[in-house]
Write a structure and sequence with these properties.
The structure is a single chain. The chain is α+β, with helices and mostly antiparallel strands and 486 residues long. The chain has helices at 53-59, 86-97, 159-168, 188-194, 220-239, 256-268, 279-287, 332-351, 359-378, 405-429, 450-460, 473-485, and strands at residues 21-24, 40-42, 62-65, 71-72, 104-109, 113-124, 127-134, 144-145, 147-150, 156-158, 173-175, 200-203, 209-213, 216-219, 245-250, 272-278, 295-302, 307-315, 318-327, 381-392, 395-404, 437-443. The strands form 5 sheets. Strands 2, 3, 4, 5, 6, 7, 8, 15 and 16 form a 9-stranded mixed beta sheet that branches. Strands 1-10-9-11 form a 4-stranded antiparallel beta sheet, with helices on both faces. Strands 19-18-17-22 form a 4-stranded mixed beta sheet, sandwiched between helices. α5 (220-239) crosses α6 (256-268) and α8 runs antiparallel to α10 (405-429).
């Protein structure tokens, strides 16, 4: 047969990008090379006299990674950041520790990756100049995989260490727990999602999802709280003082129950939530001071686990959302899944062996698929390789699949079209025509994929823009929101 039989549907792919290695509560942190793509950007100023006093302060803000380096973000040029400078990082963190009273941190708890930032305010003459500092995590990275692992000794592992467990010990690790946050165990789409997890699950007393790992039960809220708690501890270590308040981000599609669960997770982590901001709205604020950010602006937010779309009206007084839409089950991890399925199909045609029924091998293939996705974002072709994919009576079989960028685009096509369908439905519900949009800005690491950028340009008739690197837009915008709250 040309195609394999219908396989099981393993939903969750590996985290979207980056490094990050953590082990809590013991605090044993593995050494990692510094990240090579973290940013420091100057937000482009708006037109003179255009913003209110609070927004004017934000307009003059500096957005920096705590490595202290800076680079101008040009509207329309979508790019990531320069390498980090450990010496500059030390100087910035020393300065922060000496001048932040009652700090409020900002956490972007993403489906696949999470990060933390701080809004530092200097008074220069009579003007407050807010500075958004993306805080480094152990090992020098600026974000971490949203993966939680459970060890038999009772300890919790997070980040890259937990991500490695997805291949070596998948029954004791959960990736993308945010997808289960505030959801009921008996919901059909949750049941479908759970069939692809190696970790055991069960319904809780209130109908929520309970994880069964390493001989104990853990609610999804508790699992998510571990990620938030680590980011809180990172902030406290950098600042040298207690941190108790946080601004969080959430997808547009989050229900009241999901937001309540997110707040509860923060509470367990020892954080008081003073605001929750929609992710595409935060992305809009991050891009607000680019010169092209005027009139009706669309924000296309394609993250690791969710897709959000919003249209904002830009006026002198600020930014007002006029249309919101989203897809809870669409993100970069689904692209990893599409690549892995294509590779598994090719392997089946060649050997007659089904990789999706082998949990450990499948998780390894998902990791390889994520690496291939990153390669194809930058290169015209790549080779997806998986050693020891299967063992037979004739010996060990390995997987090797050449993928061109054109083939990659075809693998992504249905998922990209799904995102554009969400855009179309949102615009129609709000009675907004494409011709009324002055620009489209992107957010989320998935927007680096060339096929995504091409589809956006074709659908909207405009080249997608980004005044800040897309993977930082939500975090930076949420931090600037603190200026408005104050």
């Amino acid at each position: 047969p040309a195609e394999p039989p219908a396989p099981p549907k393993p939903e969750p792919p590996p985290p979207e990008s980056g490094e990050g290695v953590y082990d809590v509560p013991a605090g044993v942190l593995a050494d990692q090379p510094p990240a090579d793509d973290d940013i420091v950007i100057d937000a482009a100023p708006g037109e003179e006299g255009e913003a209110s006093d609070a927004l004017a302060a934000a307009a003059r803000s500096r957005v920096v990674s705590s490595d202290g380096a800076q680079s101008r973000a040009v509207g329309g040029e979508i790019r990531s950041a320069p390498p980090a400078d450990p010496t500059a990082s030390s100087q910035v963190l020393t300065r922060i520790r000496n001048r932040v009273p009652n700090p409020v941190i900002v956490i972007d708890f993403g489906t696949t990756r999470s990060s933390v930032a701080l809004l530092v305010e200097d008074r220069v003459e009579v003007m407050k100049l807010p500075e958004v500092v993306v805080l480094p995590l152990p090992g020098g990275e600026f974000d971490m995989p949203s993966v939680v692992g459970f060890r038999k000794d009772g300890s919790i592992v997070l980040g890259q260490t937990a991500r490695a467990m997805l291949a070596s010990d998948p029954s004791n690790a959960i990736q993308s727990p945010k997808r289960l946050l505030g959801r009921r165990y008996d919901e059909p789409e949750i049941q479908q999602h759970l069939t692809g997890l190696a970790i055991r699950t069960a319904p809780g007393p209130n109908g929520e999802v309970v994880l069964e790992a390493a001989g104990r039960e853990t609610t999804v809220i508790e699992a998510c709280s571990h990620v938030l708690q680590l980011l809180k501890l990172v902030a406290q270590k950098n600042l040298g003082q207690e941190v108790n308040q946080v601004v969080l981000t959430a997808p547009v599609s989050f229900t009241d129950e999901q937001q309540a669960a997110l707040r509860r997770a923060a509470q367990i982590a020892g954080l008081e939530v003073i605001d929750v901001i929609y992710e595409p709205v935060a992305a809009a604020l991050a891009n607000r001071y680019d010169p092209a950010f005027k009139g009706l602006v669309a924000v296309y937010d394609f993250g690791g686990g969710t897709f959000d779309f919003t249209v904002v009206e830009v006026a002198k007084a600020g930014v007002r959302p006029v249309a919101l839409g989203g897809d809870t089950w669409l993100g970069g991890d689904d692209i990893d899944l599409a690549i892995a399925n294509a590779a598994a199909n090719a392997f089946w045609r060649e050997t007659g062996l089904e990789l999706r029924s082998q949990v450990t091998v499948w998780q390894r293939l998902l990791v390889a698929a994520e690496i291939a996705k990153r390669d194809l974002t930058l290169k015209a072709s790549t080779v997806l390789e998986l050693a020891d994919a299967a063992r037979t009576a004739k010996g060990i079989c390995s997987l090797s699949l050449s993928i061109s960028r054109a083939q990659f685009a075809e693998m992504c096509r249905d998922l990209i079209e799904r995102s554009l369908t969400t855009c179309q439905e949102t615009l129609e519900m709000s009675k907004i025509k494409l011709s009324q949009l002055s620009a489209v800005y992107v957010s989320g690491g998935t927007c680096y994929i060339p096929a995504v950028q091409q589809a956006i340009a074709q659908y909207f008739g405009k080249v997608p823009k980004s005044a800040v690197p897309p993977e930082r837009a939500v975090l930076v915008g949420a931090a600037l929101r603190r200026t408005l709250l104050d």
